[in-house]
Amino acid sequence: MVLDNLGSSLRGSLDKLQGKSRLDEEDVEEIVREIQRSLLSADVDVNLVMDLSSSIEERALNEEPPGGTSARDHVLKIVYEELVGLIGESTEIPLEPQTILLAGLQGSGKTTTAAKMAWWFSTKGLRAAVIQTDTFRPGAYDQAKQMCERAEVEFYGDPEEEDPVKIARDGLEATEDADVHIVDTAGRHALEDALIDEIEQIEGAVNPDRSLLVLDAAIGQGAKDQARQFDDSIGIDGVVITKLDGTAKGGGALTAVNETDSSIGFLGTGETVQDIERFEPNGFISRLLG
Ligand code: GDP
C-alpha cells in the first residue's frame, strides 16, 4: 500500500470499494469530495485542490486498473501519483561544500532551521557553519549562537555590527574552513521593501548555491505571496516546512512549491537541533490526507 494513516472518512469511502474491480461515477465523486475536504482543511490552495481533483476524477474514471488490481488500490495509486506529481521528490541537497541562504518571515523558524541543517550536515561528515546576519530581531544572535553550540557546529555573528551584508561577507571569510555555510537572514512580520532589499544584497554578497524558503506549517493561504516575492527577488530552490510537530498539516508548502516551481527539502519537527528530517513525499501526503 502506498499510503497509510489516511483520514477516517477517506478511508471509509475507499473501504466501500473493497471487492469491487470497477469504479462507477458515484464512487469516484465521493472519493474526490473526501480528498477535497482533507486538502482544504490542510490549507492547500483552493485552485490547486480543484486542479488536483479534476485530474484524479478524470483518471479514475478513464484508466483501467491493471489486471489483479482492485478498484480501491487503483484509485489510491492515482491519488498518490497526482499528489507526488505536484509535490515532487525532495529538493536535491548534495553532500558537498556549498552555501545555503535561508529566507522567510520572522518567526517562521529560520534561525532554528539554520542550526538544525548545520547539525544535519555534520552528521553526514561535512563541517558546517552558521552565519547569522539577522541584525533586526533582538536575541537572534544569542539564540543562533546557543543553538550552534548545542549542535556543535561553527557559528559566526557580530552583535556590534549593524550591516547584515558586511556580517555575511565577514562570516564567509571567518568560516572559510567549513564545507557548508548556512546563512541565516532577518525576517520581518510582513514582506516589506526593506526586507527584500536586504536579502537581495546578502544574496549578491554570498552568492549561494541554493536558497531555501522557510515556512511555518501553519502558514496556510498566505504562502503564495511570500513564495512569489522571495522567488522574484532571490530565486527559491526549495522549501523547508517547520513546526510539523504541531497540529498544522503544512498544506501551504504545496502552494509555495507550486508557485516557485521548486520542491521541499527539509521538515522541522521540534525545537531542538536534532528535530530535522529530509522531506519524504509518502509521509507528507499521508499527513495531508489524514
Ligand atoms: P526566525 O524568526 O524565522 O528565525 O524563527 P526562529 O527560529 O526563532 O523560530 C521561532 C519559534 O519557533 C522559536 O520559538 C522556535 O523554537 C520555534 N520553532 C522553530 N522550528 C520549530 C519546529 O520545527 N517545531 C517547533 N515546535 N517549534 C519550532
UniProtKB/TrEMBL annotation:
<keyword id="KW-0963">Cytoplasm</keyword>
<keyword id="KW-0547">Nucleotide-binding</keyword>
<feature type="domain" description="AAA+ ATPase">
    <location>
        <begin position="96"/>
        <end position="271"/>
    </location>
</feature>
<keyword id="KW-0378">Hydrolase</keyword>
<keyword id="KW-0342">GTP-binding</keyword>
<feature type="binding site">
    <location>
        <begin position="104"/>
        <end position="111"/>
    </location>
    <ligand>
        <name>GTP</name>
    </ligand>
</feature>
<dbReference type="GO" id="GO:0005525">
    <property type="term" value="F:GTP binding"/>
</dbReference>
<keyword id="KW-0694">RNA-binding</keyword>
<feature type="binding site">
    <location>
        <begin position="184"/>
        <end position="188"/>
    </location>
    <ligand>
        <name>GTP</name>
    </ligand>
</feature>
<protein>
    <recommendedName>
        <fullName>Signal recognition particle 54 kDa protein</fullName>
        <ecNumber>3.6.5.4</ecNumber>
    </recommendedName>
</protein>
<comment type="subunit">
    <text>Part of the signal recognition particle protein translocation system, which is composed of SRP and FtsY. Archaeal SRP consists of a 7S RNA molecule of 300 nucleotides and two protein subunits: SRP54 and SRP19.</text>
</comment>
<comment type="function">
    <text>Involved in targeting and insertion of nascent membrane proteins into the cytoplasmic membrane. Binds to the hydrophobic signal sequence of the ribosome-nascent chain (RNC) as it emerges from the ribosomes. The SRP-RNC complex is then targeted to the cytoplasmic membrane where it interacts with the SRP receptor FtsY.</text>
</comment>
<keyword id="KW-0687">Ribonucleoprotein</keyword>
<feature type="domain" description="SRP54-type proteins GTP-binding">
    <location>
        <begin position="97"/>
        <end position="290"/>
    </location>
</feature>
<comment type="similarity">
    <text>Belongs to the GTP-binding SRP family. SRP54 subfamily.</text>
</comment>
<dbReference type="GO" id="GO:0003924">
    <property type="term" value="F:GTPase activity"/>
</dbReference>
<dbReference type="GO" id="GO:0048500">
    <property type="term" value="C:signal recognition particle"/>
</dbReference>
<keyword id="KW-0733">Signal recognition particle</keyword>
<dbReference type="GO" id="GO:0008312">
    <property type="term" value="F:7S RNA binding"/>
</dbReference>
<dbReference type="GO" id="GO:0006614">
    <property type="term" value="P:SRP-dependent cotranslational protein targeting to membrane"/>
</dbReference>
<feature type="domain" description="Signal recognition particle SRP54 helical bundle">
    <location>
        <begin position="2"/>
        <end position="87"/>
    </location>
</feature>
<feature type="binding site">
    <location>
        <begin position="242"/>
        <end position="245"/>
    </location>
    <ligand>
        <name>GTP</name>
    </ligand>
</feature>
